[in-house]
TrEMBL record:
GO terms for molecular function: delta(3)-delta(2)-enoyl-CoA isomerase activity; fatty-acyl-CoA binding. This is Enoyl-CoA delta isomerase 2. The lineage of its organism: Eukaryota, Metazoa, Chordata, Craniata, Vertebrata. The gene is ECI2. It catalyses: a (3Z)-enoyl-CoA = a 4-saturated (2E)-enoyl-CoA; (3E)-tetradecenoyl-CoA = (2E)-tetradecenoyl-CoA; a (3E)-enoyl-CoA = a 4-saturated (2E)-enoyl-CoA; (3E)-nonenoyl-CoA = (2E)-nonenoyl-CoA. Residues 16-101 form the ACB domain. Its EC number is 5.3.3.8. SUPFAM superfamilies: Acyl-CoA binding protein, ClpP/crotonase.
Length: 370
């Protein structure tokens, strides 16, 4: 309502007709929508300046827009035309200066500090969490799991409407960094496996409990845990260059990220088994046909199309969107936490198995060109 309060003239001399016309042009150039109340005020002052006090019958009760305009004009009573013109010019001048001070900041300024493995930015009511180890295909280190949890926690409390997880470079993510299995001192393996299971439980738990719409923007291939947690997202947009691969059996490991529950629900038992047990790699189009991906876009226009879509979604009524997300998730939360706990206890055992140790050694020896 503050913006609707009558504006005092700031200039000693009254605004001229030329000032008024120039203010009318300036309004068209505003980058930020001033909101309905201010627009009504501008309309009323314009009418008062050009026609004087309100002189038309009040529109009918169902003609909501014209009624609101009429009310705003009528509220100016017998305000003299010159004063209305001055108030119009002053109001536009205020709007123009706040418009230029709220210009979009360069990306470097929007970047949230404190993350080493992520780039976190907020713009247009969207918080974007970008995994940022492109040289290692965004493989998830222990630090990265922790930073993603911190970024999600912060995003759940910020004023964003939608949260996006994406990757920098040619991969979305190659999943767990297999170096997480290295440098474990002899005799410490059991303790490390237990700590790993706790970390994983907390990591997946953050996605289960996340209260706002979560969108995965899959810019390239995705492997392992970066695929399994997709069943906990609300939207999954993929470039047609993306692939989806869960080679758990080859790695002597078992499904996590609640995929043992979400994948059969999403794609049916047989297709889930092909992925989670036999390690079948899906193209983006196959993943879309099976319901894991919401929509596939050509790689050449992927970023442009997805961000245009997300910016439009981010303008939806925020609280309603969050409440809808929570209503849908609340039906499943208890079950998902139980699945998460069970998967992690199985995986904790798997990490100690010969099959898993041999698979990790095989990756490392290929890497070392042995
Ligand atoms: C006691 C246990 C404690 C564990 C605690 C863990 C907690 C949570 C665990 C959750 C369980 C998750 C399971 C999974 O995600 S399983 C999936 C694991 N990922 C893989 O198996 C992928 C392995 N990588 C590859 O197959 C290839 O690198 C890839 C196909 C991704 C790309 O091949 P390409 O030839 O194009 O490129 P490079 O191989 O040269 O890769 C570039 C460099 O990046 C390194 N890299 C890539 N991915 C990984 C990875 N997942 N782990 C470690 N390093 C990775 C690769 O080695 C190259 O590095 P260099 O340039 O230094 O050689």
């Amino acid at each position: 309502m503050q913006a609707l309060s009558l504006h005092m003239s700031k200039t000693a001399m009254g605004a001229s007709q030329k000032d008024f016309e120039s203010a009318m042009n300036q309004v068209k150039l505003l980058k930020k929508d001033p909101g309905n109340e201010v627009k009504l005020k501008l309309y009323a002052l314009y009418k008062q300046t050009t026609e004087g006090p309100c002189n038309t019958p009040r529109p009918g009760v169902f003609d909501l827009i014209n009624k609101a305009k009429w009310d705003a004009w009528n509220a100016l009573g017998n305000l003299p035309k010159e004063t209305a013109r001055q108030n119009y010019v002053d109001l536009v001048s205020d709007l123009s200066s706040s418009d230029s001070s709220s210009q979009v900041k360069p990306e470097a300024d929007r970047k949230q500090p404190g993350y080493e493995t992520l780039v976190v930015t907020s713009e247009d009511s969207i918080t974007k969490i970008m995994m940022n180890r492109p040289a290692k295909k965004n493989a998830l280190t222990i630090q990265m799991y922790r930073e993603i949890m911190l970024a999600l926690e912060a995003a759940s409390k910020d004023d964003s409407t939608i949260i996006v997880l994406t990757g920098n470079g040619d991969y979305y993510s190659s999943g767990n960094d297999l170096m997480n299995f290295m440098n474990i001192p002899p005799g410490e393996m059991e303790k490390e496996a237990k700590n790993g299971a706790i970390l994983l439980r907390d990591f997946v738990g953050c996605f289960i409990d996340f209260p706002k719409p979560l969108v995965a923007v899959i810019n390239g291939p995705a492997i392992g845990i970066s695929v399994t947690i997709l069943g906990l997202f609300d939207l999954v947009y993929a470039s047609d260059r993306a692939t989806f691969h869960t080679p758990f059996t080859h790695l002597g490991q078992s499904p996590e990220g609640c995929s043992s529950y979400t994948f059969p629900k999403i794609m049916g038992q047989a297709k889930a088994a092909e992925m989670l047990m036999f390690g079948k790699k899906l193209t983006a189009r196959e993943a879309c046909a099976q319901g894991l991906v919401t929509e596939v876009f050509p790689d050449s226009t992927f970023q442009k199309e997805v961000w245009t879509r997300l910016k439009a979604y981010s303008k939806l009524p925020r609280n309603t969107l969050h409440i809808s997300k929570q209503s849908i998730r609340n039906l499943e939360k208890e079950k998902l936490h139980a699945v998460n706990a069970e998967e992690n206890s199985v995986l904790q055992e798997r990490w100690l198995s010969d099959e898993c140790i041999n698979a990790v050694m095989s990756f490392l020896s290929r890497k070392a060109k042995l």
